[in-house]
């Protein structure tokens, strides 16, 4: 059974770039690595409905905190069997966003912290009721909110399919979400957490993560 590792962070934090560096390092070491990004836009009706809602479609769906959280959660539930198959055939499965993303944004929209009822609701929904695999390690890519926002704006300007959505344009929400992420990492919510900064070297981080997991410090399923 492979290790399930998740990269979390604000929109525009640089998760995709860091993930590519981690994957490249592990593959160079001879490890078999699979990747998956959530939401699964273009593959999941729930993810696509969520994206459309954040761009003003589907009436008042986006205004409902729980409705949006359920769409993101159902996307992952739909992928549960795929995830288990990936874990059974790879040494490492690296995810760009997972359940903690839903917990962080849902709590932030409700003006709650990492110990609040929104986070517990997401845990019960996705891990208990939907039976999603529990991560072995979660990595928070922590960057200043202003830097993440600038990267998101640049991405929207240079990539035709990456128009900023309502969450990305809401600076206050991004600030609150970052605070919830910090709380989840401090509490080691659902697994061991590591925190990386914008200048973290992916090769050194890959070694650090491998050592944590091999030393038995990560959560085992």
UniProtKB/TrEMBL annotation:
Record protein name field: dTMP kinase
EC number(s) on file: 2.7.4.9
Enzyme class per UniProt: transferase
Keywords for this protein: Kinase, Transferase
Domain of life: Bacteria
């Amino acid at each position: 059974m492979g290790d399930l590792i998740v990269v979390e962070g604000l929109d525009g934090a640089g998760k995709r770039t860091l993930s590519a560096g981690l994957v490249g390092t592990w593959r160079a070491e001879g490890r078999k690595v699979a990747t998956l990004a959530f939401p699964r836009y273009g593959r999941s009706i729930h993810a696509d409905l969520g994206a459309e809602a954040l761009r003003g479609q589907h009436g008042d769906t986006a205004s409902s905190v729980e409705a949006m959280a359920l769409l993101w959660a159902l996307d992952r539930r739909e992928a549960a069997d795929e995830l288990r198959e990936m874990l059974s055939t790879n040494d490492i499965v690296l995810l760009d966003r997972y359940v903690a993303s839903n917990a962080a944004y849902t709590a932030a929209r409700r003006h709650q912290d990492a110990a609040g009822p929104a986070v517990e609701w997401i845990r019960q929904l996705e891990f208990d009721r939907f039976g999603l695999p529990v991560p072995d390690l979660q990595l928070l890519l922590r960057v200043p909110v202003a830097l993440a926002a600038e990267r998101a704006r640049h991405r929207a300007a240079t990539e035709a399919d990456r128009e900023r959505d309502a969450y990305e344009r809401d600076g206050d929400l991004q600030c609150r979400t970052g605070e919830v992420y910090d709380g989840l990492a401090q509490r080691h919510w659902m697994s061991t957490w590591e925190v990386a900064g914008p200048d973290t070297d992916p090769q050194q981080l890959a070694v650090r993560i491998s050592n944590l997991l091999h030393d038995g410090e990560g959560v085992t399923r």
